[in-house]
Structures are given as C-alpha cells and as structure tokens.
Amino acid sequence: MNRISSQQVFSGGINRLQDLNTTLNKTQQQISTGKKVNQPSDDPVAAARILKLDQEVKRIETYQRNADLADNRLQQEESALSSSVDIIQRIRELTVQAGNGALSVNDRQSISAELRERIDQLADVTNTQDASGEYIFSGFQGHQPAFVKEADGTWSYNGDEGQRVLEIDDGVTVPISDPGKGIFVDVPRAITVKDFVPGTAGVTDGYISDLSLDNAQSLRTAFEPRVPDDLTVSVVNPSGELKITANAGALDLTPAPPPTVGQAFEVAGVSMTVKGASDGDTFTIGVNDKQSVFASIENLIAGMDSIDKTTPKGQAAYDSLIAESLANLDNAQESITLKQTELGGRMNAVESTKGFLEDSAVYSKDIRSQLEDVDYAEAISNLSFQSFVLQAAQQSFAQVSRLSLFDRL
C-alpha cells in the first residue's frame, strides 16, 4: 500500500502552483511586449530564425540608406547638368547675336559683358556642393572646388578623374559622382587654325576662311585607325599651289589636281579656302583637339573684344570665331547631354534596386512578424483560462493543505 506523506502533498502542490504561475507570467509578458518569443528558451528554432531575419532587415535598411544617398546625389548632379545646358544655350544665343554683321561696337561690348557673367554663372554650377559640403564634380578631391579662377581670369579644372561608387545591394554598385574633367574639359574642339608660320618672305597676309567639317565620316575614314591631331596646309611654290599632309608629313592628302591659294577645296571631309598666302606659308589645322567649355567661351570673349572686322582678314577671323564657338558650344552641350543620358540609366537602376529592397524588407518583416508577434486574442484568451486554472489550483491546494487524520477521528 502506497503512502503519501504531508510533505509530498505540499511539495507537489507548490510545484504545480509555480508551474501555473510561470505559464501565466509568460503569457502576461507576451501581452505586454507584443512578442511571443521573448527569449531563446521560449522557442529555440523560432528564436534562431528571428535572429537571422533581424540581421537581414538591418542589411536591407543599410542598403536602402545607400540607395537613398545615391539617388539624392544623382538627382543633384542631374539638376546641375540641366542648369549647365541652360546656361550654355543662353551663351549660344548670344553667340548667334554676335554674328550679326549689323551690330555696333557697343552692341558687341554688351554681349561680351553678359558672356562674362554667364561664364561665372557656369562656374558656380560646376562647383555645386552636396549636403556634406563636398564638390560633386571634383572627383576624389571633393574638399576643393572643381573649377578655380586663375590670376589671368581664366577658369581651370582643379579636381582629379576619380569616380565615387556606392554599394546599394549585395554585389550591386552604382557611380554616384562624375569628374568634371570628362564633362566640361575634355570636350571635342571644332576644327580650327592652331598655328601659322610665314614662308621665306617672313611677312604675309595669309589666312584661311570658310573652314568647316562637312563630313565627319570622311575625316575618320581618311585617318584610320586614328584621327591625327593636326592637318598641315603648305604653299609649296610661287604659283600658290597647296600641299596637304598629316601624321607629321607621313600621309599626303593633297587632292588631284592640287588646289591653289584662293580656291575653295575639300580634303578628308574638311573644306576651306586659303587666302593671301605666299610661297612657304604653312598653316596647322587642329582636327582632333579637345578644349574645355570655359576656354571656348573665354576665346569667344577675347576674340569679340580684339578682332578688327574692318579688313577682309579680320572679318574672316571673326566669322571663323563665331562658327567655331557655335560648334564648340554644341559639342559642350552634347557632352553634357550624353552624361545626362548615362545618369538616367543609373537613376533607373537605383530606383529598381530601391523597389527590390522595399519588397525584400516587407517580406522579411512579415515572416519575422509571424514568428515573433503575439496573437493578442489568443493570448488574452489563454491568460483568462490560465488565471482560472491557477485560481482553482490555489483553492484546491488550500483545501488539501487543511486535511488531517485528526479531522476523521
């Protein structure tokens, strides 16, 4: 016959009450915190998954901050480039006005004065700073302005060619800056007369007029695989016969029959007329040069202020200045537009990545919520039931604890 001692009755009753109280406290904690897993022992498997999901959410949030930063930087750069295009377009309009032969000297001076204001305005835009104070077009030299004004009044590039990138997802990086050198400095320059060396007489009124590139494809084809930097046009005899060479004289491009002074001709897609030149005169024509948009505007201003249009040579020089300036400004706008197109592609990539990250964050948080968040209706129902069970157990224990054999005597 098994005997149950009073100690066993009390010990068993107290343990039961402690278990019920622990369960009740756990339910109360779930309701107060809103989480059904408050410590690993509550559900070791779920706790491990929740920890991994927490890490995943933090990873996603980090990349979301990077994506937002990239988007802001790219939008700021795109805005600066748009402003640059607007300024250059206004300069182009002024250049067209300057080409009007009916303008007076005062009119030209007024245009020149506005051009000086516009070039300073362009410099301000190219020296745009981001929220942290860094210059967005300075490459890795973000602490210093991209363009600085030299002692002679000209603008020069002060940054480097570095390009900053930012990781916006695992293995996904996007450039968030562009050095100003590739946008505003390395701009293809219009074909122009770079140098003139007089012949044996030492004095000449020679010049080239109506210089233009009529066929870019012909130019490239003539110099495959690479367009040279210069063309050389020389007067080779007293009769004014011309010889055209390239690649330091190694490539003879002279048409047959050879053109002469005063005769319009075309070579490798480049048309021109040599005027007033004599035997031995040599012209060097740049066909593959680059020039900053600032230098193009500065040359335009200098030419407008200095060229004397009262002579045929001066008029030809002025006409060439206007034509070259318009071509240079068009090239500058094209350089900026190409960069805007590239920026658009980057911004689309960032936007797509932001959408993917947002979807990933929602999915991860939803799974975490299913594992971690408490069902209040169920928890409150459990709490009510557990409170009832605990109360019943307490009453039962109170009755049992008062039992004694003496009560049966």
From TrEMBL:
Transmembrane domains' residue ranges: none
Q: Which SUPFAM superfamilies match?
A: Phase 1 flagellin
For this UniProt entry, what is the primary localization, expressed as one broad class? other
> Which residues are in the Flagellin C-terminal domain?
327-403
Report if keyword GTP-binding is assigned. Answer: no
Domain spans labelled Flagellin N-terminal: 15-140
Check the record and name the Pfam families matching this protein: Flagellin_C, Flagellin_N
Recorded coiled-coil stretches: 53-80
Report the InterPro entries cross-referenced here: Flagell_FlgL, Flagellin, Flagellin_C, Flagellin_N
Name the domain of life this protein comes from. Bacteria
Instruction: List locations, semicolon-separated.
Output: Bacterial flagellum; Secreted
Tell me its family.
Belongs to the bacterial flagellin family.
The name on file for this protein is Flagellar hook-associated protein FlgL
Organism, as annotated: Marinobacter koreensis
